[in-house]
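ok so I'm stuck.
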Amino acid sequence: MCFSKLRTTWLEFKTHPGRTMSGTSIHRRSLKIRAEVNYVNAEEAKKLIAVEGYAVLDVRDKSQFDRAHIKSCYHAPLFVENQDNDLGTILKRTVHNNFSGLFFGLPFTKQNPEFIQSVKSQFSTESKLLLVCQEGLRSAAAANKLEQAGFKNIACITSGLQAVKPGTFDSVGSTELQDAGKAGLVTIQGKISAVLGTVLICAYLFITFFPEQAEKLFQLSPAS
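replied:
not stuck anymore, here's the structure
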């Protein structure tokens, strides 16, 4: 089975000190080829799961994961909610909660110090893992960390779950996978806009198809 995908390969050079001959230090240079990360679209990802036996590893934070996630996936967040109580963190958390947290529903997070250990507790380094997040950035960062930890078979969905069409994967949660990143006042504003748009469309259709009734209603309205 062949899939079209963007592959990223890292080459790592290491220089090792060798023996000394006639006052000259000899160094050996070895070449180490590190793992490839395959970047695939949603349809290719489905084939990796069904045909290649890849397990889905969701690296989003808990709030997005709870809103919607792929059925039977594993969860190991790359970032966790930051509950530290030092003065600097408290100030940053306060500013965050009053802006990004309020408008976009984003939690104040920090890197998960137990991320690698959490993944290793569920998978061996030989496991085939499809990493998913909402926008594609966290999965790419997680792939780099896992590659450095010795994992050899890693794939990511380009642009994340926000680019996945409804029904592509069986999902669990209160919303669609592509909408799991939406929260806060932005979603309320979107709902208000949708309602106003529907009202305006209905008013336009009423005036268009029932002009006489619309004119009578205008006559009944109080003069400005």
